[in-house]
Amino acid sequence: MANPTDKVILFDASKCTGCRACQVACKNWNQRGYTETNNNGTFENPLQLTSQAWMRILFNEPEDRPKSDDDLYWFFTKYQCMHCTDATCVKVCPSGATKKYKLSSDEGDGYVVRTDAKQCIGCNYCVATCPFQACRYSEKDKAVDRCVMCFDRTSNAADAFPVPEQGSPDLSKAKEAVPTRNGPACVQTCTAAALTFGAREDMIAKAEARVAVLKKERAVDAQLYGVDELNGLHYIYILEDAPSKYGLPENPTVPAGVTLWQALVKPGAPWGGIALVGMAAAAGVGYVINKRNEGLEREQGGE
């Protein structure tokens, strides 16, 4: 289970206005650039996570909510890597490129899940097995990109920064970040106070109090999400209804095949030499089929 002192982001969906300022702040701080998109008849833009869009706001319009022509209602969801305690991507990575990095030199601050581009071999196992479908492979960078919880704004840990080919890690940014440990860019830019950054136990206590108010005032089905899922996410959600209404899996789990992969196939496993060929072949075939299906979908969609 996640440590009570781990730093997490609390998202209060009941306060979110869908302004998407957090998306812009994320792109700006992490220098992600911009992607040309088309009007697809939705307020969501972009329509999926990419190497240039590490997070996005989902506009979930519930079908069972009564509404008139001038009374639209959405469940907004901040969608990105959840930095799971029981992280499938870490378990399945054959090269060790995806791992947990300390968020700061203070052990109590916890970690973020990141992928080292120099070690990534492009197998896409993390993309295929992520319960939240939050990993994206960049053909340009030849690596997996994701939310990194703006570690360079909150960290003073040496291993939170990429190590250059020669020499020691450049800690100049870390040293600059120490006096301003106010949290990720998305948190600081939120004008609706829907985002908060802090210790997990504090954020859960705050969220529980908010849920109690929502249940009493307007949302009897209000609940928390991320407290127990996958032994604790590093994003905690305050929801006014069921997770499925927000586009979140009701019960995210580590796929059974991942456990088998760890035990039999992943480098270092006791039976890796025996099972590697068959499992790798099956995975390779599956990946080819998936790529083929993706190509067909793009052709059918006119992309």
What are the defining features of this structure?
single chain; about 300 residues; alpha+beta; Alpha-Beta Plaits; 2 domains; four-stranded mixed beta sheet; two-stranded antiparallel sheet; disordered C terminus; Formate_DH_Fe-S_su; 4Fe-4S
Quick overview of this protein structure:
The chain is of the alpha+beta class and 303 residues long. The chain has nine helices and ten strands.
Explain what you see.
This protein has 303 residues and is an alpha+beta fold. The protein folds into two domains: 1-254, Alpha-Beta Plaits (2-Layer Sandwich); 256-303. 31% of the residues lie in helices and 15% in strands. The strands form four sheets. It has a four-stranded mixed sheet with strand order 8-1-10-9. It has a two-stranded antiparallel ribbon with strand order 2-3. Strand 6 and strand 7 (143-145) form a beta hairpin. Helix 8 (256-265) crosses helix 9. The chain is globular and about 50 Å long. The model is unreliable at 157-181, 270-278 and 299-303 (pLDDT under 50).
Name the quaternary structure. single chain
What is the overall silhouette?
A: globular
Tell me the span between the first and last alpha carbons: 43 Å
Count the strands? 10
Protein name: 4Fe-4S ferredoxin-type domain-containing protein
GO biological process, one term: cellular respiration
Transmembrane segments: 269-289
GO molecular function, one term: metal ion binding
